[in-house]
Amino acid sequence: MGVIKDILTFLANNVFGQVPILIGLITLAGLILQRKRAEDVVAGALRATIGVVILFIGVDVFTGGLASFQTVLASAMGTTPPKADHSLTGFLSEQGGTIALVITVAFLVHVLLVRVFPAARYLYLTGHLMFWISTVTVASLVTIAPSANQLTLVLCGAGFVAAYWTLQPLWIRPLMRRVMPDDRFGYAHTSSLACLITGYAARPLGSREKHDTEKLTLPRQLSFFKDVNISTALIISVIMLLGVAFADHGVVAKAAAEMDDKLSPWVWGLLVGLRFAGGIAILLYGVRMFLGEIVPAFKGFSDRVIPGTRPALDAPTVFPVAPTAVMLGFVTSTVVFLACLAVSAAAGWFTLAPPMIMLFFVGGAAGLFGNVVAGWRGAVLGGVVSGLILAVGQGFTWGLYERTAPELSTLADPDWYAIGWLLKAADPAVGKGTVWLVPVIALAATVATLVLLGRADRRRAVAEGEPEAAGTAAAKA
């Protein structure tokens, strides 16, 4: 038993937890299954791996600036995060092994579900979120069932997480088909609920054809804003400089000194904006590079291992579709969150901490999904929805994890809040010793959903005059 545990933990830490390795291995296997020449297999796998590495370099470049951005804005708004007796670091040291086992067992269950039910369609491959979703789930289970042993936490957590990984790309699929009409890959990101709400709420606001952010007509004097790199640099630099103007001088000086102790705070603020734009450019380049390899290579799995399956990938993979909408969603979400922060502080409510990285990825993704429905109006709505969810969710969820890892409420995406409160709703039943209801209900709901989707696919195939394809319609959909 100990050997099996060690193997599963190794896989979680060194394969599923390392996105470049995971994507590289899947690309390698997919090309081998397609019987490509050895040189093409090696080159394709390396290009996919390097593409992911470049993507994360871009993320590191601009998130480093966002972390400083967050500190300066919090100072400018006069807020500090609430104190807690427990920390995420402590929780991970206690439950890190459990989380690693949940990731591995959940992925095996997820692969089984996708293999057995063609309607599942997508294999969840966003490695870092596989870790965070498992962490949130384990923290929630520890909260509602503090006496549960490790085996119970692993099996219950894995069942719930596998259900989420299987269903999440499916509930966003109708909107994702607007973003990616050829259905080359699915969307696997914990911003999905904000994107879903935005997509359906934006319907009355107009159409993409009339208001597409990527086709906006600007006066000649402002035409340079059409270049997303320039607009990003200008907008973020202006916000940073405003933050520098109102923040405590000591806080700004300390943040600037981390880059260069001889640097003026004003020049530092400008450089952060420029680095942010550069990081986004690097990220988008990496996305294009690894997508160019993983999507064709995945055909090997789709043809030979899991018929009809596509990869479900991280949020940045869709950002090149409408980068202006991404930036509009991010800026709007930031403004809305800061407004909520000011209201909360003035009323003496919960002290919010600006989660700039989440505001970018969630606000940007929701802005993009809003754009494909209603153009720039939908993108703005996506930012509003994201800012509100992140502000309200943070305020209401801190207490949920105060005995485990309260930072999970300030580092959270919308789906994290949904997972936490969904499991909290099971507290009365779990309190009676029925914690096993969590994975049983989650997996039963998943199987029922997949069966219904499979039947719908078969009916659609017959209605389209392809009765011979009805039995495999889901695999072809």
Automatic annotation (TrEMBL):
Pfam families membership: EIIC-GAT
Topological category with respect to the lipid bilayer: Multi-pass membrane protein
Domain of life: Bacteria
Transmembrane segments: 15-33, 45-78, 98-117, 129-145, 151-172, 228-246, 266-287, 325-350, 356-374, 381-401, 433-453
Broad class of the protein's primary localization: membrane
GO CC, alphabetical: plasma membrane
Description of how the protein assembles with itself and partners: Homodimer.
Protein name per Swiss-Prot or TrEMBL: Ascorbate-specific PTS system EIIC component
